[in-house]
Amino acid sequence: MKHALSLLLSVLVAIALLSGCASVNDTPVAPQAGQADTSQTKETDHFEYHSDTEVPKGPGILSGENGEFSVY
Amino acid sequence: MKKRVLCSTLAVGLGLSIASTGTAKTVTVDEEVLKSMQLQLAAQAKAIADLQTALKGQQDKLDKVPEIGAKEQAVVVAKPDSSKVQVALYGQIDKGVMYADDGNEDKTFFVDNDASSTRIGVKGDVKPEGRLSAGTLMEFEYQTNPSNKVSMDNESINEDLNARKLSFYLADAILGKLTVGQDSAATDGLAEIDLSGTALAGYADATIIGGGLSFYDNTTKSYSKTTVGSAFIDLDGGRYDVVRYDSPKLYGFSLAGSVGEESKNEIALNYSKQFDQLKVAGGVGYANEGSNSSHDDRWLGSVSTLFTNGLSFTLATGTRSESDTQRHDPFFYYGKIGYQFNAFDIGKTALSLDYGTYQDFALNNDAGTLFGAQLVQDLDILSSQLYLGYRQLQLDRDLADLNDIYAITSGMRMKF
After folding, report:
1. Taking the CB of residue B56, how many other CB atoms lie within 10 A of it?
2. What sign does the dihedral A43-A47-A52-A55 (CA atoms) show?
3. Alpha-carbon distance B76 to B70, whole Å?
4. Are A20 and B199 within 8 A, CB to CB?
5. Of the candidates B217, B237, B220, which has an alpha carbon nearest to the alpha carbon of residue B366?
6. B124-143 burial, b if ≥16 CB within 10 A, otherwise e?
7. Which secondary structure element, helix H or strand E, spans residue B182, and what is its range?
């Protein structure tokens, strides 16, 4: 069983290491002469996991676009 | 002509004579008047100086008025700025119908889906200048006929209002976040990370749908004491009074640790990141079950990926060490394959199939197997999700012949 957890941790670490090569959060590098500037095509990594079992983000049927009733 | 010149000369001479006589008198008068005027001027100068002094005094008083105003303004600034303070009410209703068949009896239940129960909350956030922020959270759950508790014997359960979260937090963008109060311990949700979009209809915790149903034993022709809720556990963490620390995210990783009531200690490593072609979320954790538990330690983790083409893969696993040396340490494995797409204007559609095995939870050598299928249809215009889930739960036990339990659940979650 501990092997399964170790495997899971290994998967996470592997993904993290791979992300070091393909991170979408790298500091943009100025393109060399003759190269296309692709920095604008990279996404910024703002992904935060939000469980589907929690109250979802986004609009509410009564609260509208805000998704919450602003009390103050 | 000569007469005119003569007359003019006389007139000028007379005039000069008169003028010279007058001047002599004036000089005499000026000396006397001058002293008088000098005295008057001195008196006037003194009066002016007095007036200036008085005016300056008044001006000083007037000048002090804006200073007091500035102080008052500073006090106002020190008070919470409405633009930096937010207090909001939020919540959802999640109701459905669950049909269950345990091989001996079948019944239709009208339930509150425990996968994401009916709840309401109030949260407050303060974000002053700089890196600091703080806030409060009160979240309550109010379920009637919870899908994890109804049974063939009891289909009407009116739950009390239960507190899910009662806590406050202090956060620093560099140092991290500290949460105090009843809230998620470090491993809460760690076995249930799921990007399939179908968690409403089923995920690693098999107890949420039909958890109160008992297995019927064909050998004894009676219901066993084992329920789904005691045999299909995903070992996920819970919510209780904690002091929890969350580190800032670094390269997608963040660390969480909590200490809480009954000497419970938990630690977790979380990961979430978006790449060009996929999103990844996962985590692993460890928990010491505390002084009042029959379990010692708990290890768990899960990872889920969602590709831009809509495919998703989810894995979860966990184990627990028992205090009773006669008991085997229970463990589980769980996997889900999903696909989500936007075929309809009403919102995203998500489908998935899942499988899990749950060993030694209720009794030694118990082997539980889960099969399931899920469908969740977003209804964007209603801020809602329609869901349909199927579960088949098998439990193999020594010297027993337990019937499988089937459950179909359908309903809708509406965020208000």
Report:
1. 11
2. negative
3. 10
4. no
5. B217
6. bbebeeeeebbbbbbbbbbb
7. strand B176-184
Mean pLDDT of B247-268: 96
Q: Count of CB atoms within 10 A of residue B391's CB?
A: 25
Report whether pLDDT(B110) > 50.
yes
ipTM: 0.76
SS (H, E, C) B333-369: EEEEEEEEEEEECCEEEEEEEEEEEEECCCCCCCEEE
Four-point Cα dihedral B192, B195, B201, B203, nearest 10: -30
Residue B52: CB atoms within 10 A of its CB come to: 11
Smallest CA–CA distance, residue A32 to chain B, in Å, is 23
Contact with chain A for residue B168, Cβ under 8 A: no
Prediction pTM value: 0.75
Q: B109: closest CA among B364, B411, B401, B375? A: B411
Distance from the B184 Cα atom to the nearest Cα atom in chain A, whole angstroms: 12
Rounded distance between C-alpha atoms, residue B339 and residue A35, angstroms: 37
Determine the Cα–Cα distance for residues B379 and A56; give it in Å rounded to an integer.
13
| B:290-319 residues touching chain A, CB 8 A cutoff | 299-303, 315, 317-319
Range B361-368 average pLDDT: 96
**What are A12's two structure tokens?**
């996470």
Q: Give the residue-averaged pLDDT of B236-265.
A: 96
Q: Is the dihedral of CA B333, A2, B238, B376 positive or negative?
A: negative
Asked if the model's pLDDT at residue A26 lies above 50, the reply is no
| Run of H or E including B226 | strand B222-227
- DSSP class of residue B327 equals S
The beta-carbon neighbor of B92 closest among A20, A43, A55 is: A55
pLDDT of residue A31: 40
CA atoms within 13 A on the CB side of B34: 6
